[in-house]
Description:
Elements: H1 9-14, H2 17-37, H3 47-95, H4 103-128, H5 143-150, H6 155-173, H7 178-203, H8 208-233, H9 237-258, H10 271-285
Helix pairs in contact: 2-8, 2-9, 3-4, 3-7, 3-8, 3-9, 3-10, 4-6, 4-10, 5-6, 6-7, 8-9
Amino acid sequence: MLLKKNIPLKYIFGKIxxxxxxxxxxxxxxxxxxxxxxxxxxxxxxxxxxIMGTVLSLLLAFRSNQAYDRWWEARTIWGAIVNDSRSFSRxxxxxxxxxxxxxxxxxxxxxxxxxxxxxxxYALGQSLRGLDGKDGLDRLISKRExxxxxxxxxVPMALLELHARDLKYALKQGWLNEFQQVTLxxxxxxxxxxxGKCERIKNTVFPATYSLYIHFAMNFFILLLPFALIEYxxxxxxxxxxxxxxxxxxxEKMAIHLQDPFDNKPTDTPMTTxxxxxxxxxxxxxxxxxxxxxxxxxxxxxxVM
Length: 305
């Protein structure tokens, strides 16, 4: 996720540097041909690109809104994951009275459940980004559980299954009553629903024809723009056309990046950062003082992953 400060111009204009170079060369060629050969017939009425620009602006605004809705939905889902992870851990820690049972066994059970929930958050984020969901989980869960998760194509789903097995075991042992087990299972169901919503966003491609038509219309608008300004500005139209084209191109690039919130880019939903915050909160609930360190990346301070 991009932060409010320190976003370098190199990052912003680096997304469109080749397009801007082509626009500058194209416009310069038009100006040279017009001035050297005095081709007055090359000019077109300014109203033509103005009308196209107005329509294109509306289409780009609509597309940007739709892309932002996808990004915001992803962020909202991860906000719910934070709440449900805290609720699940609180329920696990508070429902079981360790004074009535073998304290060591109960403590091991509760710690295993909470740590597995932390691992689930990391595994989900990595899986959504197309990375190995098992990477780094061995510091949170046992090797046996990592080996179990390796058998599944969907690692987060495997961890939820282990949650369900442990809840069933706790019910049989009498550590939980049926009402408590149902309450915990409902929390797991909400986590599973959140995972499914993320996968829906990840696997639903933004309509390709819609993006393609807008891209073609924008390119046609940029191609016409030098012919409409040539009579008014001459050589000055080169930076002017470049500036106008850059504005449209940047809006299009912004929409392209926002429409895929799980694509392992700086504009992503900050799933790793959110998972790290969940780990911090849940470990504090366990009275574990080995908290995750705050990552300070001096080279990329303008975004968090």
